[in-house]
Structure to design on (205 residues):
């Protein structure tokens, strides 16, 4: 039942998505990025649902997984636009990733490759529970690291949507071709008809 090639490929895609989501969840936790943390949690649940649907031949689970991936593509596209400050989006004004509860930025801002962090002492613009820093020497700015991470999520999601729809169609075709578990309909089985050996005789008076 089902196409092993499509199923195996979908399981591999889901595994890559799960690893990418877990890796992203760790760094978003470190950066106090609450909105991505919530979205990553939903992504992890959806990927687990997709793996279960693939292994257990559940086409409905794969449909739900594919629908979520469409929303996941939209969310990651928004993140790309946010960090590239497309349109009226601004990282200095909009703290959407933390639900406007803090001034924290991406963890990669201070811990990017080659970044040198220098604290600014006695800064008057810093709130009481924050400090001002300067970051220099980064080989790749944190905005582009976040953009590349989201682009990878979009790429995996697109492959996941295609293969989820394909495998779900295969499962549905297999279910339609197998009418009954016993296979009676396929072999033209007809149940025996009841015959009566009793004959009615007219009653003469």
């Amino acid at each position: 039942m089902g196409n092993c090639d499509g199923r195996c490929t979908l399981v591999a895609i889901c595994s890559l998505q799960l690893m990418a989501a877990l890796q992203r969840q760790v760094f978003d936790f470190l950066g106090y990025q609450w909105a991505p943390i919530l979205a990553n949690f939903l992504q992890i649940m959806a990927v687990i649902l997709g793996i279960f649907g693939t292994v257990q031949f559940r086409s409905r689970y794969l449909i739900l997984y594919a629908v979520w991936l469409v929303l996941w593509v939209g969310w990651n596209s928004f993140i790309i636009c946010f960090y590239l400050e497309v349109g009226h989006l601004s990282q200095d004004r909009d703290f959407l990733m933390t639900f406007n509860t803090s001034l924290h930025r991406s963890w990669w801002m201070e811990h990017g490759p080659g970044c040198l962090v220098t604290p600014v002492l006695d800064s008057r613009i810093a709130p009481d529970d924050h400090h001002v820093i300067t970051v220099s020497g980064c080989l790749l700015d944190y905005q582009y690291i976040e953009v590349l991470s989201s682009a990878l999520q979009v790429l995996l999601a697109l492959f996941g949507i295609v293969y989820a729809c394909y495998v779900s169609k295969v499962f549905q075709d297999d279910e339609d071709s197998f009418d009954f578990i016993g296979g009676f309909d396929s072999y033209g089985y007809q149940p025996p008809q009841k015959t009566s050996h009793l004959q009615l005789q007219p009653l003469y008076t």
